[in-house]
Amino acid sequence: ELLSRTVxxxxxxxxxxxxLMNCIHERARIEKVYAQQLTEWAKRWKQLVEKGxxxxxxxxxxxxxxxxxxxxxxxxxxxxxxxxxxxFEKIKNxxxxxxxxxxxxxxxxxxxxxxxxxxxxxxxxxxLKEEWSADLNRTLSRREKKKASDGVTLTGINQTGDQVSQPxxxxxxxxxxxxxxxxxxxxxxxxxxxxxxxxxxxxKEDNKIKNVSSYEKNQSYPTDWSDEESNNPxxxxxxxxxxxxxxxxxxxxxxxxxxxxxxxxGQEQDELSFKAxxxxxxxxxxNEDEQGWCKGRxxxxxxxxxxxxxxxxxx
Length: 315
What we know:
It is found in: Cell membrane; Cell projection, Ruffle membrane; Cytoplasmic vesicle membrane. Keywords: Coiled coil, SH3 domain. This protein is 59% helix and 8% strand. It has helices at 2-51, 56-98, 108-165, 169-187, 198-213, and strands at 256-260, 277-282, 293-297, 303-307, 311-313. The protein is elongated, with a radius of gyration of 59 Å. It has 5 helices and 5 strands. It is mainly alpha-helical.
């Protein structure tokens, strides 16, 4: 900004010199023209007075009036000469000394001012450039850090949302199996048959574990056992009196119809797949386990599990 003001002052100084010289020249021309007009006017009327019939005081006053006009004309000519010979020439000479035009245009003083400012500002311009570069790097670093932070936050939210929206049925299955194994172990009496050998006891344990692994994922839902259930060693009363750890309340629950709120694609063979709409005749009156799963039946007869938060009961 300081450089532009200095350059503008140089250009304005040269232009103002020209304007001032033009003003003086016009004033001198006006003075010259006025002096010539007065001289011509006085000369014409002086001739008329000399040839006229007037005499006495009128003639003397008239002639004095003409003489005064001639003297005023001489004064204006002196003013004109003073303006052109003194003031005009002084300004013109000063302009030549103060402003030097170059062959390629512009003034030498302007170039010197630009070079001087450029030389003086060079170290500061370098520091300013370094500051701008550092500021740009800080800005880019903050943006990258913010993007990375937002990405980590969104990833965490998505993972949490997936865990909430799709309960882990496998953990439910593991929990059921663990509880069942504990129940079987507590109900087993090693002294129930003194005639059994060690190998017979081992075979019984293996059969118990196999039956435990074939148990349904969710013990809160009734399971249709096959006709071979009578051969299940856990259904007998030999283990612990008349109690069976796998006995459930097999009373059939009233079926209710539910409507699917979202599309769901089964991830396992025992899961149902359905579209948003109606999921017909779900069992157990929309009862869900601790992991958020329900057991239902589609119109085509397919029975399987589905997330409870994907449906709503139909009133």
